[in-house]
Predict the structure.
Amino acid sequence: MADLGALLEKLGRNAGMAPSEIMQLRQKGRDLDAVGSVAGSWFRGGGMDPHFSYMSADQGMFGTMPNDIARVGTNTNQTISNDTLTALAPADAVTGIDISRTHGMGVDVANGAIDLTNLGPDEMVWLFARVLWVTNTTGYRHVEFYDQVADAFLFSGDYSDANAAASGPVQKAFHSITNTYGTPRKIQLKVRHTAGAPLDVDLWRLDAIRVR
């Protein structure tokens, strides 16, 4: 069976089109054939990307849809010592993973962390942090993202001067991270302040959205 490019070329010749127009028709036809081939294999068999195999019904049933959102946090005050990097944990205001315990993101309540252990290699996750401190105008406030398993720094979040007129007790931070295969990774927040005395975090949240 002739491909779409050859068919359009024949139609163009029969219509008396110019050679340059015929060449364009032939190329567009081949491009459409290529797109159709990829799309067809994706829908029939879950595609070439194994991460989408759960959408295939070739075996007579659908697999488990990954849980793409996870949250940890708490509404309970946590006292943070002055100038001491401290993990925000434990958590109680959480989004569970009952929908997709096997394939999706998990939550580690004890460590206040989002568990990426079950995700495959190179999965990308967006992280959103929100930390509410009690009212205080001395020193600075700092939020950092950490790998809880390795106790390793990942990246710096919000760094605010509490004395600045435009600053308030709420800190917000965003970052994206790519998962690594074979290395359990749990993401948590750590904070530091220089108020000169212990200071409480009133509320905090760490949200994750899987985007790939």
